[in-house]
Specification:
about 20% strand; about 90 residues; Alpha-Beta Plaits; alpha+beta; about 20% helix; 4 helices; 6 strands
């Protein structure tokens, strides 16, 4: 089962403003880029050509794994505004 199949039961109410942010200068000095590996929803992608961390905040599951894994403590994470973010549903 791929990630898209696993995330299919989820619904998102996407805000126009991200609830995640980073300082890309700090990301450039990070050797592991662990946020790109630990996120279950593939929110983070390191773009070597641009030297930036691309953040697809609209896919965030709000689990907080990225904050724990970031060795530089560089991920500013807050809950999305009321009524925005991931919506879990049964079945």
């Amino acid at each position: 089962m791929n990630i898209d199949d696993k995330l299919a039961p989820l619904r998102y109410n996407t805000d126009s403003e991200s609830h995640l942010s980073v300082d890309n200068d700090v990301c450039m000095r990070c050797k592991t880029k662990s946020c790109t590996k630990v996120c279950p929803a593939n929110v983070y992608e390191w773009c070597e050509d641009d030297g930036i961390l691309r953040i697809r905040y609209e896919n965030c599951l709000e689990c907080g794994a990225c904050r724990i894994a970031c060795e530089k403590k560089n991920i500013a994470w807050r809950y999305p505004k009321a009524s925005y973010g991931v919506k879990f549903k049964n079945g």
